[in-house]
Specification:
- It contains two helices and two strands.
- The chain is α+β, with helices and mostly antiparallel strands.
- It has a two-stranded antiparallel sheet.
- A hairpin with a 5-residue loop joins strand 1 and strand 2.
- It is globular.
């Protein structure tokens, strides 16, 4: 992606199913009520299900890699990459 292309990326629906990159197929943290601590586990679980092909209607076709990004209280930040083995 090129700097300044975010609007086009979203308007072209490249951030959802059928697009280039699917973002938050489970609805994101707010869909879970954003419970402290559990959000990271929910992200991890969703990504593992995606890579295993077990995400039912949320399944991203041919998912091979996944990125988890979680920022917590006090500035804690975790970024994790997953790949299908």
């Amino acid at each position: 992606m090129i700097v300044g292309d975010a609007e086009k990326f979203i308007n072209d629906a490249d951030n959802t199913y059928g697009g280039k990159i699917v973002v938050n197929p489970s609805g994101g943290l707010m869909s879970k009520g954003h419970p402290l601590g559990a959000t990271g586990l929910a992200q991890c679980t969703e990504l593992v299900w995606q890579l295993r092909g077990q995400a039912d209607k949320r399944q991203v076709p041919e998912a091979k890699i996944a990125l988890q990004h979680n920022i917590g209280l006090g500035g804690a930040c975790v970024v994790t990459m997953y790949r299908k083995g």
